Structures are given as C-alpha cells and as structure tokens.
C-alpha cells in the first residue's frame, strides 16, 4: 500500500490574532483548519474556510456565527458547562481528522485570559499529542515541546531568544548546538531558570533531550 502523507492542521482559537505576513506561512500547505469558538471571526477576517467549527460559541458574535452558518461551514456545538476548553476540543477534533502536525494560532491571548494562555501551553503535554508535532504560534513566537529521545532542529532562527523550561522533575541529557550558552548532556530541574533567555547564534541549531519533557519558547527578532 502507498504511504499516506501526514496531514497538517491549523487550529484557530479565540485569542488575540496579530494579522501579518506570518499568518500566510502558517496556513500554507495545511490540510485541515479547525476554528474554535471566536476562531470563526478570525477565519472570516482571514478569508479562510475551516473544515469544522467547534465549541460552545459563547465568545463569537451572533453575526459571525450566523455568517458561518450561511456560508455552510460545519458547526459542532457543545454546552457552555463542560469539562474541556474549546481549545482542547479543537485539538481532539484535528487528531480525529488525521492531523500529525498541528499549528495553533490565537492561543496566547495577548494581555488577557492568562488562564487560557497557560492552559493552552500545557495542552502540549497531553498524552494524545505525544507522537504529534504541535506548536503554538503567534507572529514572532513559537512554543513547543522537546520530549525524551527527541532532537529538535531549528532553522532560520539566528539571533532569536530561546528558552528551555523543564516540565519534568529533571530533564536529563540535554545537548544543544548553535546557542550562545550550550548544554553538553546536562540536566535541568523543574523550578530552576537556567534555561531562560538563551540566544541562537547560527541559522541552524539543535536541541536534544535524552529523558524528560522540555518546553521550548522561541522569540524571533521582529
């Protein structure tokens, strides 16, 4: 049987969305678009058509929700009182649709809803996403995980600020190349800040983890 090409998904959440050329790169080559709640409004603004809209829709305006219905967009509605955020529901839907790579936009919420921002970042640790390539993207910021026995290759990140934050008690055997302060099979412990605010010196850099879960935040120069 021929191999199937892994599907790429974009999830559009309801936080602040900074419009710019970067957003075109995110949607380029995407196979699946999932809009969560007010993500409908962002999709209308960007003139992109989601495969499905999901959530309780307590944040989107009635006007935009009705516009989505008139356009024939598929809508899956959930009650407001539920045990999962719209973001989590959207991730689960993208995986059900076969996504292997997931880029999440409008998930960092600008200067509001710190609870959703932290919740969305911690969604990256879900066991459901263990074998997926998932990142939160917002203009010049990318947030993702590096897990046990993984190597993350960074391209076109020269001069970016890079922070490595341990999410396991101890993240072991971390090796980095191409950074101002490299690690040579060293450990980082949760609650410590040694990995904050490093600098990418080269166009190509690598981060390898032997054991544990590392949160990686890249902030590129604007």
Compact overview of the structure:
With 222 residues, the chain is α/β, with parallel strands linked by helices. Helices cover 20% and strands 35% of the residues.
Helix-strand layout with pairing:
Layout: E1 7-12, H1 22-27, E2 32-36, H2 39-46, E3 52-55, H3 62-70, E4 75-77, H4 86-96, E5 99-105, H5 114-123, E6 133-138, E7 141-146, E8 150-155, E9 161-166, E10 170-177, E11 184-189, E12 198-199, E13 204-209, E14 214-219
Parallel strand pairs: 1-2, 1-5, 2-3, 3-4, 5-6
Antiparallel strand pairs: 6-7, 7-14, 8-13, 9-12, 9-14, 10-11, 10-13
Task: Explain this structure.
The chain is of the alpha/beta class. It has two domains: 7-139, 3-Layer(aba) Sandwich (Rossmann fold), CATH 3.40.50.10240; 146-219, Thiamin pyrophosphokinase, thiamin-binding domain (Jelly Rolls, Sandwich). Helices cover 20% and strands 35% of the residues. The chain contains five helices and 14 strands. The strands form two sheets. A ten-stranded mixed beta sheet has the order 4-3-2-1-5-6-7-14-9-12, with helices on both faces. Strand 1 (7-12), helix 1 and strand 2 form a beta-alpha-beta unit. The longest helix has 11 residues, at 86-96. The model has no long low-confidence stretch (mean pLDDT 94).
């Amino acid at each position: 049987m021929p191999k199937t090409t892994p599907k790429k998904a974009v999830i559009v959440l309801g936080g602040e969305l900074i419009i710019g050329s970067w957003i075109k790169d995110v949607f380029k080559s995407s196979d699946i678009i999932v809009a969560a709640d007010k993500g409908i409004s962002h999709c209308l603004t960007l003139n992109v058509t989601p495969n499905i809209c999901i959530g309780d829709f307590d944040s989107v305006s009635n006007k935009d929700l009705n516009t989505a219905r008139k356009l024939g967009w598929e809508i899956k509605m959930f009650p407001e009182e539920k045990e999962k955020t719209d973001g989590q529901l959207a991730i689960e839907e993208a995986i059900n649709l076969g996504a292997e790579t997931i880029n999440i936009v409008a998930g960092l919420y600008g200067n509001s809803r710190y609870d959703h921002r932290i919740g969305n970042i911690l969604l990256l640790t879900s066991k459901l996403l263990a074998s997926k390539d998932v990142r939160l993207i917002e203009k010049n910021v990318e947030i993702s995980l590096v897990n046990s026995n993984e190597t993350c290759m960074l391209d076109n990140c020269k001069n970016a600020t890079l922070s490595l934050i341990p999410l396991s008690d101890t993240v072991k055997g971390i090796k980095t190349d191409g950074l101002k302060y490299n690690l040579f099979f060293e450990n980082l412990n949760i609650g410590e800040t040694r990995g904050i605010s490093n600098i990418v010196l080269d166009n190509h850099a690598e981060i390898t983890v032997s054991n544990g879960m590392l949160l990686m935040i890249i902030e590129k120069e604007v």
